[in-house]
Amino acid sequence: MTSDTKPPVLVFGPYNADGLAELERRFTVRHLKSRDLSELSEGERGAVKAVAVAGHLPNEAMDALPALEIVGHFGVGYDGVDAGHAAGRGIAVTNTPDVLTDEVADTAVALLLMVVRELPQAEAHARSGEWEHKGPYPLTRFSLRGKTVGIMGLGRIGLAIAKRLEGFGVAIRYHNRSQRGDVGYPYDANLAALAQASDILLNVAPGGASTDKAIDAEILRALGPDGILVNIGRGSTVDEAALIEALETGTIAAAGLDVFADEPRIPERLRRLSNTVLLPHVASASRDTRILMGNLVADNLSRWFASEALETPVPESAKAGLMRRP
Predict the structure, then answer these.
(1) Where are the alpha helices (DSSP H) in the chain?
(2) CB proximity list for 116: less than 8 A, separation 6 or greater
(3) Does 5 have pLDDT greater than 90?
(4) Catalytic residue status for 234
(5) Is residue 256 located within the same domain as residue 119?
(6) What are residue 152's DSSP bridge partners?
(7) Could you tell me if residue 326 is inside a domain?
(8) Catalytic residue among 281, 311, 324, 325
(9) What CATH code is carried by the domain that includes residue 127?
(10) CA 263 – CA 47 distance, rounded (Å)
(11) For the residues of 152-167, what is the DSSP string, one character each?
């Protein structure tokens, strides 16, 4: 297949380098790093049938591409793409579940251990020479012994985390929009009940209107002064101002965060707190996993242009019957 017979794909905004290379191997790629459609002529915009994006694709951008058929989203959480709006226009949307589940679950458990046992602070104590000059690092306030971990969002990733945590001997419970019939963990019908019953609240929930600031001051009070919050879901699910206040005042004991409300900006007050472990949204950020994610985006686009069933359409697309190219 020569380059001029490869289907065209518009890459909208910054994109993983390995994923971009895979797209360029299979398609004729136009990369708009600036996310500025004005760089395309009217004729070029009218010819775009497929978009690959990692992050936000505004509805205005979708509507400015009259021939758009499919959006391949690089990432499992696709709240940056209005899949309902896309479905209304007959545009399919895909994401990249499963291939990052294990990596994110590993990171979640690592972050939990880091915050519970104060491992970053202990590492700094050793690296700085304080161990030699000031003595051993103080005993940590918490351990995992006898603890209950409440998981908000027991989907693919949440369940993978739960399976890993079983090996640590902790009790596990969860809150979802509805109870699962395939697990034996105790279920809490509302988030406040889960927080109250948990020593560690671990958030894996996706973003979107239904979860916006779901973990608010009330939930943090229910978690309590010995409680710990770990968030590897979306920053939008936590009321960040309420969390900062709760950490400053001792409403909760500590937090481990991989996601934030306005990434990459982290409030100075949050960065100053010693009872936090902060990671720069790296839960799935290994090259091996990102290659798999990029390949899955490309696989879905290849299937679409071959009129084959999409591998991972999002629910809104599946419900609208947008499973393959007509």
Answers:
(1) 17-26, 42-47, 59-63, 83-88, 101-116, 119-127, 130-134, 156-166, 191-197, 217-223, 240-249, 268-272, 287-305, 315-319
(2) 140, 142, 143, 144, 147, 200, 228, 254
(3) no
(4) yes
(5) yes
(6) 175, 203
(7) no
(8) 281
(9) 3.40.50.720
(10) 33
(11) E--SHHHHHHHHHHHT
Backbone angles phi, psi at 321, to 5 degrees: 75, 20
The question of whether 133 is a catalytic residue gets the answer no
**Catalytic annotation present for 123:** no
What domain range includes position 10?
3-96+287-319
50 and 189 together in one domain: no
- Active-site hit among 45, 175, 234, 303: 234
Counts of helices then strands in the chain (DSSP H, E):
14, 11
When divided into structural domains, the chain yields a total of 2
8 A C-beta contact, residue 256 and residue 203: no
For residues 224 and 306, membership in a common domain is answered with no
| Active-site residue, from 39, 130, 166, 263 | 263
pTM for the full predicted model: 0.91
Pair (13, 46) in one structural domain: yes
Looking at the fold, whether 105 and 213 belong to one and the same domain comes out as yes
Give the pLDDT confidence of 287-311 residue by residue, as tens digits.
999 999 999 999 999 999 999 999 9
Percent of residues, the chain, with pLDDT higher than 70:
99
